[in-house]
Design brief:
The complex is a heterodimer of chains A (about 110) and B (about 110).
Chain A (H helix, E strand, L loop, with lengths): L4 E3 L2 E4 L5 E6 L6 E7 L5 E8 L2 E5 L6 E5 L5 E5 L8 E8 L8 E2 L3 E5 L1
Parallel strand pairs in A: 2-11
Antiparallel strand pairs in A: 1-3, 3-8, 4-5, 4-9, 5-6, 7-8, 9-10, 9-11
Chain B lengths: L4 E3 L2 E5 L4 E6 L5 E9 L6 E6 L5 E4 L2 E6 L4 E6 L8 E9 L4 E4 L3 E6 L1
Parallel strand pairs in B: 2-11
Antiparallel strand pairs in B: 1-3, 3-8, 4-5, 4-9, 6-7, 7-8, 9-10, 9-11
Chain lengths: ~110, ~110
């Protein structure tokens, strides 16, 4: 158990809908990272938040947004969902910056029908 | 375009044998390299974080080296065991692009 929690574990929804994925980092970690793993692709970095502020951005679509709250939990919002958004979404946390060890949560499996 | 390459894509090794695989990357503006172990149906587990040229890390039977000037890292597994079967990922952090880039992984299978 890495100490990072993600909810829900599974999510099934329809095209055009909006969903919110939630992540709670390990106690003491200030940075949260979101990653996407699609069926035909490896892990893709989406975005990093540090202590409530966006720190780095990867290949995140405009339909996706994230935030980190004062209690350091983070939410990833996916809107206008398309079939191709079906993927495993991981959250990871680290003490501060990307050169620290990152601890991954169990992931949320999103299926868009 | 920043590209992280791992080789080989897959590897089948006899139990007890030692093995190694490679992560290659553009070396400019590099600031950290991560190695992860990813078992099927689980989430990636951090093995090492490496930041300095000539850095060498060891954890039990697994060790890694880093050459930032030439842009590669090796992961070594000594005396492979069935529980070492997993996909091994490397990921690079680049300050210029302010992003994290993963390789596609090396899938390791250990034959008993």
């Amino acid at each position: 158990d890495s100490g990072v929690t993600q909810t829900p574990k599974h999510l099934i929804t329809a095209t055009g809908q909006r969903v919110t994925l939630r992540c709670s980092p390990r106690s003491g970690d200030l940075s949260v990272y979101w990653y996407q793993q699609s069926l035909d692709q490896g892990l893709q970095f989406l975005i990093q938040y540090y202590n409530g502020e966006e720190r780095a951005k990867g290949n995140i679509l405009e339909r996706f947004s994230a935030q980190q709250f004062p209690d350091l939990h983070s939410e990833l919002n996916l809107s206008s969902l398309e079939l191709g958004d079906s993927a495993l979404y991981f959250c990871a946390s680290s003490v501060r910056d990307p050169s620290d060890t990152q601890y991954f949560g169990p992931g949320t499996r999103l299926t868009v029908l | 375009i920043l590209n992280v390459e791992q080789s080989p894509q897959s590897l089948h090794v006899q139990e007890g044998d030692s093995t190694n695989f490679t992560c290659s990357f553009p070396s400019s503006n590099f600031y950290a390299l991560h190695w992860y172990r990813w078992e099927t149906a689980k989430s990636p587990e951090a093995l090492f974080v490496m930041t300095l040229n000539g850095d060498e890390k060891k954890k039990g039977r697994i060790s890694a080296t880093l050459n930032t000037k030439e842009g590669y890292s090796y992961l070594y597994i000594k005396g492979s065991q069935p529980e070492d079967s997993a996909t091994y990922l490397c990921a690079l952090g680049y300050s210029s692009a302010s992003k994290i880039i993963f390789g596609s992984g090396t899938r390791l299978s250990i034959r008993p």
